[in-house]
Amino acid sequence: MKPLIFLSALLFIFTLSACNKDDNNNGHPNLDYSVSDLTNDTLFFDYDNHGDLNVFEDSGDSTYYTINGNLLHFINYKKSEKRTIADATFTLNSDGNIISGHGNFSYTLANPFSSDYTFTYDNAGNLTNINEVRSDGSYYEDAFVWINGDIIYINYINNGSTYYTRTLTYDLTKEDKIKINKESFLMPMNSHIGNMSRHLEQHEYSIYPPNTMGQYIYDFTYTLDQDGFPTLLSIFETDNSSTEVITYHYK
C-alpha cells in the first residue's frame, strides 16, 4: 500500500501505544482521541466489543470496517465530498488475519481504479509482504523486516523499483501496550494483520530515491503514566528543527 503523504499523521499512528482506562479490550485500555498542537487536527478511535479498533476518523475522512464470517468489509468516506472513496472486501484466514482482498477506489473522481491484494506472513505470524495489483496495470509491494518483535525496515516498491524506505529503531525498555499500526492496512488496526511491533519507536530515518522528495529524520519522546501508557508524544523533525506534541485522551 502506498505510504501517506501526510507524514505527521502517519508517524503519530505508527508510533502510537496510547489507550484508555476501560477494560473492554480484554483488560487493555483503548484510545478515545488525540490532538496535535501542530495541525490542531483531532483523530478519533473506536473499538468493537472484542476490543478491535474498527473506526478511525479525522476532520477529512471516516474509515471503518465490519466483519461477516471470514470477510472484512472496509469503507473510506470523504466528508467534504460526501461520497465513498474506497470500498473493499478482504478474506481472513483461520487466525483472523487478512490474506487477500479486492476493492474499488476513487480518491479522485477522474482516476478511479480497482485493486487486488495479497498479504503474506512468516511462521511467527509477522506480516512480511503486502502486494497490490491495480486495474491500471501498476504494481505495489510493501516489504517488512522484523527483529526482536519489531518492524525495523519497510521497503515500498512500485512496478519493481523502490520509491521509499523507512528504517526504524525502538526503545526496548518501553513496551507498546496497544499496538495500533497504520503501515499495514488502509486504516489504523490493532488486529487482523498479524503481530504488532512490541516496543515504542524511538527514531526513524525515511528516504525517497535521489532527486525526488528527499529524506526525513524523526526522534520520538514519550511521557508515560504510572501504568506505562503514553499521555504525550513529542516528534522532533531534524531537518527543520520542529517539534510536534500529540496529547492522548482516553474514554
Structure, described:
Helices cover 4% and strands 55% of the residues. It is built from one helix and 16 strands. The chain is mainly beta. It has a single domain (7-250), classed as Beta Barrel (Porin), CATH 2.40.160. The chain has one helix at residues 7-15; strands at 31-36, 42-47, 53-57, 61-68, 71-78, 83-92, 98-105, 113-121, 127-134, 139-147, 150-158, 161-175, 199-207, 215-224, 230-237, 242-250. A hairpin with a 5-residue loop joins strand 14 and strand 15 (230-237). The model is unreliable at 2-27 (pLDDT under 50).
Task: Name the descriptors.
251 residues, mainly beta, Porin, 16-stranded antiparallel β-barrel, 1 helix, 16 strands, 4% helix, disordered N terminus
Shape: globular
Largest sheet: 16 strands, antiparallel, barrel
Under the CATH scheme, the architecture is Beta Barrel
Mean pLDDT: 88
Distance from N terminus to C terminus (CA atoms, Å) equals 31 Å
Which topology does CATH recognise?
A: Porin
For this structure, what is the CATH class?
Mainly Beta
Estimate what percentage of residues fall within beta strands: over 45%
**Strand pairing plus helix content: what structural class?**
mainly beta
Order of SSEs? HEEEEEEEEEEEEEEEE
Question: How do the strands and helices of this protein lay out in sequence?
Answer:
Elements lengths: L6 H9 L15 E6 L5 E6 L5 E5 L3 E8 L2 E8 L4 E10 L5 E8 L7 E9 L5 E8 L4 E9 L2 E9 L2 E15 L23 E9 L7 E10 L5 E8 L4 E9 L1
Antiparallel strand pairs: 1-2, 1-16, 2-3, 3-4, 4-5, 5-6, 6-7, 7-8, 8-9, 9-10, 10-11, 11-12, 12-13, 13-14, 14-15, 15-16
